[in-house]
Every structure is written in C-alpha cells, then in structure tokens.
Amino acid sequence: MDTQFLNTFVIVADxxxxxxxxxxxxxxxxxxxxxxxxLERELGAPLIARAGRTVSVTEEGAxxxxxxxxxxxxxxxxRSVANDKALSGELRLGACPTALAGMLPDILVRMVxxxxxINVFIKPGYSADLYRAVEAGDVDAAIVLQAPFSLPKTCxxxxxxxxxxxxxxxxxxxxxxxxxxxxxxxxxRYDRHQWGGRQAxxxxxxxxxxxxxxxxxxxxxxxxxxxxxxxxxxxxxDWAQPWPEGLRLxxxxxxxxxxxxxxxxxxxRSSVRVRLVHVLLEESCKVC
Length: 288
Prior knowledge:
It is built from eleven helices and twelve strands.
C-alpha cells in the first residue's frame, strides 16, 4: 500500500472535496480521484462517497480514518528516527491553559524558525490529565503545573517558570493592604479543586483569612476581567502574559512567604520522538 495514497484519503476527508485536496497536494483532481480508487481497490471497501463537487467519508472510511492518521504519523516518526542529520517528524505536545495562551506561542516561533521540518500536534488540557497522557504515550511531552506527586521513572521534568501568588485588585484599591482586601472584599476564588487553586486556598488558611467568597472558577483571564468590573478581588498566580487588554488592575505581592506555582515540561524518556522533545526543551529554556 502506498502511504501517499493514504495521505490523499486523509486530506480529502479533511477538506471535503477532491478539488481542495488537489490544490493542497499540488496535483490534478483526476490524480486525486485515481489514488482514492486505487486505495479502495486495495482495501476492498468504498472510502469516499461522491456527490457532485463535494465528497463525504463512508462508514468504512470513517472506521479507518483515525488509524490512517496514526499510521502516517508513525511513518513520519520512522523518517525522523532514521535521519541523523535533519530533525523532522511530528511532536505530540500537551499544554495546560495558562501555557497554551502564554509561553507556548513564543516557544513554537523559535522551534519552527530553527527546525522548519518539525510539525507539532497540540493537545490542550488540564495538568492532571496531561500527566496521564504523557505516561500513556498519547503525547510525548506537556507543559504543565508541577505535580503534587512523584513522577514514574519513565518520565522526567524540567522547571520553566515560577509564579508567586499575588492579590489581584482594581487600581482604585492599590493603596490598601493585600490581607485586608482578602479579608473584607468579595473573593473571586481560583478553583481550589485545581492544583493552582489549592495553593491559594492553603495560603488563606495559613494566614488565618476567612474570605467573603462570591465566585469560584478555573479561568485566570476571566478572573482578571471580573476583578476589573468590580466584582471582587482574587488571589492568583502571577501568570505569564498576554493578559486581557484594557484592564485597570494591580498585582499586589503578599506580605507572607508562599510557595509559588511552578510550570515546566514533563516528558517520556521512552518516546521515539525524544530528539524532538530535546529541541522543545532547548528552545523553551531560551524563552522562559
């Protein structure tokens, strides 16, 4: 089976037309159609249903579509492993929400400039889920919060950034004491069921502050907007930019010592794409 024909099938399925696939592959629509028919004969099943200028994936085609993607990804990995001179292939990378909108784009800019043959599949998710994805081999590495547990021996971790807790308040409250704000103003709580939110909750308890809780959510940008609108104050990690534009806020340091939120990269030592992971590590250290 020609893997190029399999790639053509995936592109046709994604684009929804032979003409669009032909433009992407830089071949004629007739050549696309011929490759699909050849693949269908080899597999003994119809893969694409044609209706005028548009196409749709048949039931048989839908059953093999994800396996076809995986096979093409594995073929790219084989090329990367076999080629000692040039880095290529697909890196499967997880990213928690803060990293996805903050440091990751700058890291990717450096990666694609230095190694244009590398492709990156990005899986968004919460840190706890991404640790499991790395351990299971679903992703090669992930930019996540530091885990509150020991990692398995198959995984490694590198710190990229520390984010101390700060009190987030409207500019009009900049002259007030941060503990006094937390005790007396309505609190927009960073979700205590998430790792970052637990650190904020622990600080409040250690400082003996019983807040007036109003909202609780796990979305830092949304918390910033809510503080700007006068809905309360918050205790959050001093997360990396970009922040929402046009907000009139202050980030007030805390008087007591606290454990910062730590963000880093976890990766699997056993990944066949470990060379790509090392590129990620190298470029990440230059950005963070």
